[in-house]
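Narrative summary of target 7.
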Amino acid sequence: MQNISLLILALALIPAAVLMVLMLIRDKEHPEPSQWIIRGLFYGIASAFASMLISGPMLLAGLVPQNYSNWFEAMLNSFGAAAIPEETAKLCFLWLLLRKNPYFDEHLDGIVYAACIGLGFAAFENITYLFAAGDEWLVTGLVRGLLSVPAHFFFAVLMGYYYSLVHFGHNTNRNRILVWAAPVLAHGIYDTIAMTQSVSEGLEAVFGIALLLFCNELRKLGQRHIRELADADHSVYNKNPNS
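Modeled conformation, tokenized:
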């Protein structure tokens, strides 16, 4: 039994760990201090609990349906019980992490630290889902490792991208709104498609394909944002090689 628990824990943590390592490799030229990375991961775990303080009262008050039987109820649940409270909590903890962080001095850093928050959250959430899955833990772990955890990573990329734009001078109303709205929309759409798939009898394959296509577009957008901010940093260092 103990060996199974260790396997479940490993399966839950590996996807987030792999994505975190890949993000740190991307930032290898000017890496962030390890203590700030670790702090960010723990802030991500804390944001999971904080999000419940937002979603819990909304569910109890009946403002968000706890059960859903059609796409509209699935959408309300996706945004009200997941996307809005979770991304709001992550953004609050990202602000707490960066407001007095002396190492937040590059464009890409916004994405790096947002990824810490998002992957800390995703790892904790993954543990809860896998241990609650019973005999289906392996299938649940594989599906979530390929879809849900990467999705949380790319939600974080969106948040970190716009956070950096605002911080480094592109402080427009549009960018300030998108710091919060972009990850909320991406998260809400992802969950809506996934939840609608579970209540659309006979159309599961259609919504399954739609989810894969959406994830692929999210991946391409996230990678483009990472390249853009990395290139912005390279241009700064090329102009000021001694900085």
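The chain has a mean pLDDT of 93.
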